[in-house]
Structure formats: C-alpha cells, structure tokens
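Translate structure to sequence.
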C-alpha cells in the first residue's frame, strides 16, 4: 500500500520547471508584435576593482547551457569579463509587461562557434569589427572612417575572416528571475536557483 501511495503522490506532483525552457516560451511571446528588438538586453559587469558597468547587448541565441553574446574581447566589457568572469543580464519587454534577469558565470565560446556567428553577419558588420578598436579613444570620426576604408581595401574581393580580438561569450546562469507586471504593482516574481545541478524555485514578494 505504501508503495502505491508513493507512486500516486509522485504522479500527482508537477514536473519541475526548467527556467531556460521557460525563457524560450517568454521570448516567443515577447517576439509577437514586438515594438523593439527582443534580443536586446542589459549586460552588467564589474572590473578588476569591483567598479560596475552596464550596457545593452544582443543575445542572439541560447540553449540549456546558457546565453550567448558577441563583442570585441578588448572592449570594456571584454576586459571586465577577463578580470571577473561573472555577469548579469536583464531583458525588459515592456510591451508585454515581462522582464527576465539572469546571473551567472561567463566563459568564451569555442572559436568554431564564434566563427560560425561571424560568418552569418552582414559584410558591413564584419568590416566594422576589424575597423573599430571598441571602447578605445579615437581622434575623430574621420579616423574611424579611414579605418573602415582600410579594412574594406584589405579584404576587397575576399571573405572577411573573424578578427582574433572578436568573438562570443556564454553566460551559464546560476540564477534567473521572471517578472510579470500586474495591477497595483502586485507583480508576479519567480526566482530560480541552480544547486547541485538541479533548479529550485520560489515566489518573491513584488
């Protein structure tokens, strides 16, 4: 009898929610009639001295491992992540009253993954990756235009390879929070945390 009770109880318990699959569901919802690019999100990092910085990046892909974004490794965010490979992401889809936050550890993507994404970019974006020393001071707009012209001449009639200083990062989330707007600021908040390879969840007060 006890084994039957255990079996019945297990059958009645809902399957645990995978927050990365839930993110995919919310992203698809946000993408419908989107008023701006739903891949845009804020990326927060800290430098070697613990000073924070935040900017908007595009998270073009994700899977059960985490979220991918691409940048110049020598940019401020690239230098921050080299010093402290932890970061936070925040998506705000105001037209759906949805928000998702992710916190976790960051690692560089394998070269093959960065190559594949770089090849998919428009040629102008590829040229720009060679021309721009991202986050570094420049003398003038004309100097940047000259660097673009030089890169175009360098790769004239040829495919543009990925620069060695440019590539992707993967944020492996350890915590996610899903926020849904509700009247009277009584918003729904669900927090997920990864412990010992399994996700646990709890509701948070708005």
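Result:
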């Amino acid at each position: 009898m006890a084994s039957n009770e255990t079996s019945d109880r297990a059958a009645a318990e809902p399957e645990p929610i995978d927050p990365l699959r839930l993110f995919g569901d919310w992203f698809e919802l946000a993408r419908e009639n989107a008023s701006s690019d739903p891949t845009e999100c804020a990326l927060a990092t800290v430098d070697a001295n613990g000073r924070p910085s935040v900017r908007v990046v595009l998270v073009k892909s994700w899977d059960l491992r985490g979220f991918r974004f691409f940048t110049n490794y020598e940019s401020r965010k690239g230098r921050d992540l080299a010093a402290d490979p932890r970061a936070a992401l925040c998506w705000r889809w105001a037209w759906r009253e949805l928000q998702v936050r992710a916190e976790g550890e960051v690692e560089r993507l394998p070269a093959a993954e960065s190559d594949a994404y770089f090849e998919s970019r428009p040629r102008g974006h590829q040229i720009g990756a060679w021309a721009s020393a991202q986050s570094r001071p420049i003398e003038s707009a004309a100097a940047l235009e000259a660097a673009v012209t030089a890169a175009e001449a360098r790769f004239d009639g040829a495919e543009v390879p990925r620069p060695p200083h440019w590539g992707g990062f993967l944020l492996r989330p350890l915590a996610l929070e899903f926020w849904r707007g509700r009247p009277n600021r009584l918003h729904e908040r669900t927090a997920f945390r990864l412990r010992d390879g399994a996700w646990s969840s709890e509701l948070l007060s708005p």
